[in-house]
Amino acid sequence: MARQGFDYIIVGAGTAGCLLANRLSADPEKRVLLIEAGGKDDYHWIHIPVGYLYCIGNPRTDWCFNTEAEAGLNGRSLRYPRGKVLGGSSSINGMIYMRGQSRDYEHWAEVTGDDTWRWERVLRAFRKHESHWRLDKPETAPKGFAAVHGSKGEWRVEQQRLRWPILDAFAQAAQQAGIPATSDFNAGTNEGVGYFEVNQKKGLRWNTAKAFLRPTAFGRPNFELWTGAQVRKLRLLRDDAGLRCAGVEVLTPHGVEQPWLNAGGEVLLAAGAIGSPHILQLSGLGPESLLHKLGIAVEQDLPGVGANLQDHLQIRAIYKVEGAKTLNTRSASLLGKAMIGLEYALRRSGPMSMAPSQLGAFTRSNPERAWPDLEYHVQPLSLDAFGEPLHGFNAFTASVCNLNPTSRGAVYATSPDAAVAPAIKPNYLSTDADRQVAADSLKLTRRIVSQPALAAFKPEEYKPGPQYQTDEELARLAGDIATTIFHPVGTCRMGRKDDHYAVVDSRLRVRGVSGLRVADASVMPTITSGNTNSPTLMIAEKLAGWLAG
């Protein structure tokens, strides 16, 4: 491995890190090092869409974190997947392309005091790296579509390659319940019901390693990639000018390496909402009380590092159905599995091309809401818990999440040893407001399922069960059946100078430390109203533009 200095050291080759590496190494005068704790994305199940079933919980591709026991989940601890491989969580996630709502970014602009985060400004960044299938033939795209979507970028967005009659019926039922149909969740308001678009290309997962590292970045002499290399801490120096980041300390298969920064260079933390605060804390940047407890020297008291954890908690209502095929029975026999495999091999379609959720809906938990605060992920399958076998009866799952939770959690180191996983405590359903939305969302699910469009399939509520009716019962039952939808954000949040808990400023610079920025989902002050992968990519695009001048 090279020992010379670098102009940029990027920690984490996930969603944000891959884009940053591509953009910054485009300048041949800048030396760029990208460091990834996981391995290469050469595991075949990464690229077959249904392979998320074999990647999540697999130490080859997943950090295999777990939350602390959660009071709001009636004492349960949840599996907490995070990608540990080139492409990061874009290599194991649900592939759904979702930007959120325009109001999310208007709020970011308000809390940071920086108009660069307003919707019309972030839209440029989304469009820059987007390659949307509708614009392959722009003459057939809806009027005005090209003003909102991009066609020349690396991040491919395609239609899903299969449909299910039971999901079509659910979409019709949602419309009968007052949720309008939509063909675009990404134009600024995502209210409506429709099929999700996905980050796939010709039936294969399109992760950020494919999009941004190969072949372009890999072919550049000024770009270097280290895999199987875990950053143990940042190298911090203090002089008359103050505290600055001079490089990183990395455990590699070759031993401990200490790549350093050239004069004026920067370390860019892109290790995610769990990894980035953990690395900062191990480096002496975090809450003073925590660092003292762990015996870590305090370089800068930053009480917000690891705080403000937000996530989308999905409540999985399951309905048995009759007269409709679902994945539960279609894949039950050896012949059924063989036919599914053959369909994918010949046409790159069918269940093996499935995202975990195909149909989506955004709506209000009650009519008084000013904006959609719920997201549905509807699936033609059911199981007791992720990773367990499918049920032996036909069923669909209508998972619903509160888009704007008021509960806040934390991520914190439990040891000065980087090999020891941090504690993850989301504090799900810890506020009255979140418990009320949970109860309201289950009641809304029942109202949708009771519509005429689904009557022919005789839906029967399996979970949580029709015997539970009061708000108190439904909120408690939500704690029994809910699980994470894998959207942690906010643990290094950006904010104004007078925000004591802001970790970075609006240009993602770590407070009190020169030469160090954070660029991943951890900088979000509030969670976006939808899936978080593509907003993370937008954040990296914004930073890349600032660094390139």
UniProtKB/TrEMBL annotation:
Organism of provenance: Roseateles saccharophilus (Pseudomonas saccharophila)
Keywords: FAD, Flavoprotein, Oxidoreductase
The enzyme's E.C. designation: 1.1.99.1
Gene3D superfamilies: FAD/NAD(P)-binding domain (3.50.50.60), Glucose Oxidase, domain 3 (3.30.560.10)
Family to which the UniProt record says this protein belongs: Belongs to the GMC oxidoreductase family.
PROSITE patterns attached to this UniProt entry: GMC_OXRED_1 (PS00623), GMC_OXRED_2 (PS00624), PROKAR_LIPOPROTEIN (PS51257)
Domain Glucose-methanol-choline oxidoreductase N-terminal: from-to ranges: 83-106, 272-286
Cofactor: FAD
Family annotation (PANTHER family): CHOLINE DEHYDROGENASE, MITOCHONDRIAL (PTHR11552:SF147), GLUCOSE-METHANOL-CHOLINE GMC OXIDOREDUCTASE (PTHR11552)
Top-level EC class as recorded in UniProt: oxidoreductase
Protein's UniProt name: Choline dehydrogenase
Stored Pfam families: GMC_oxred_C, GMC_oxred_N
Superkingdom, natural source: Bacteria
Annotated TM spans: none
InterPro entries, sorted: FAD/NAD-bd_sf, GMC_OxRdtase, GMC_OxRdtase_N, GMC_OxRtase_C
GO function terms (MF aspect): choline dehydrogenase activity
